[in-house]
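Progress narrative, work stream C.
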Amino acid sequence: MYPVKFDNISKDYSGNRVLDNINFHIEENKITSIIGRSGSGKSTILKTINGLIKPSSGKVIVFDQEIDYGHIHELRLQIGYSVQGTGLFPHMNVNENIAILARLKKEWSKDKIENRTEHLMNLVSLPSEFRSKYPYQLSGGEQQRVGICRAMMLNPRIFLLDEAFGALDPTTKNEIHKELLKIQTTEPRTIVLVTHDLREAFKLADIIIIIDKGIIQQIGTEEEIMNQPSNDFVKYFIKSQFD
């Protein structure tokens, strides 16, 4: 089973084609990076996986079933979603931000929420005394860790990261990368990472999808992309990233 499959997916906005007949699948319990320049369609793919965007044509298949947009809430509870800037609620402290999805489900006991929160904070190296802090009291890296904890709270089968580390300084970004890889070792799951940084994709991902102008240019491992670029665009993209 592939957790995600795109079957001839296209998406148009006001006559502008953002995704053009996209076909691919995502490997289970691996990190897949979707990479491209600004406006390439990579974030649109991520939002389509999560049901935030409905394609103009084609089928999105998640967990072996075509997305049912009439019951999208049930699907989203199985998908963690973390974006650049974290989207933390400023009026909630760290503990409340992390636990909010579990509290909304209502079937989670206080002990279960407490244990899961503590486990996740340990995973991303957040001290327990941070529970009472508010987002404005945290650094960018600390906020990103809280955002990851919140997205992981319900133990989602798929974890989507949309330029989640783009605003971080290089040292903090490196620390967060280490935490993400630690999470993947401890709680392996299907992760889809959108980035414009090929170095980040090579560092984190098992599989890389390069997209440009809504068209997939190449799918492969780091070795395949570096040694066997599929076309002139991929060659140019690699060169532009490493010059």
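Work stream C, second folded protein:
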Amino acid sequence: MIPALDSRNAPAHVSVIGAGGHGSELQSYFLDLAAHGWTGTLAGHIDDNAPEGPYRNMRVLGTLARFLSGGNIGDLCYITAVGSNELRRTIVERIESAVCGWTAWTLVHPSAQTGSDVAIGAGTLLAPNSTVTTRVRIGRHSILNVKASVSHDTEIGEYVNLNPGVTVCGKCRIGDGAYIGAGATLIDGVSIGEWAVVGAGAVVVRDIPARCTALGVPARVIKQR
């Protein structure tokens, strides 16, 4: 199952929260969606640190604070474009606490592949050439970046970031807020605790506790946060 407000089946009026590098990538993803028949619209980007108006290849609408202070502005959907899991959670909490009528929107790139019995939470991104096989659960506001791969019977929490080229084998568990570096591999059945960090290129062969940083091949815990 995939939520109703999704790039595969529902046109929407969408704003992207963030106009940095990741926001610029999402801008190109919306162009790809339109080329594959999506009939929604990209309103623009909202960012506290970018000038209003044309910016790089984006259109910045203003700051998040200005939009939230205006109260209910209608049926606007949003997706965050922020790589930091902590900051992404803070932004979502600000939006939800403002009771502004916005709805989190799920972006599934046309080249992403999803199998049967897959649930993807609101606000989550499946980037180009990402793969989710079968019987997978992914929480809200997570990122599966370019060529990330998630195999069967895996559960991924909220505010997780799987960087480009990550491989998650079957029956893994990834807790809320976990950050998995580019090219890392999680072998079958391992668990990653909440807000843990796995370094780029690491190979995880045993469970990583919550709020720890693990590096290397095989991955070893080097510090606890």
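The CA atoms of residues 76 and 102 lie 5 Å apart. No further action is required on this item.
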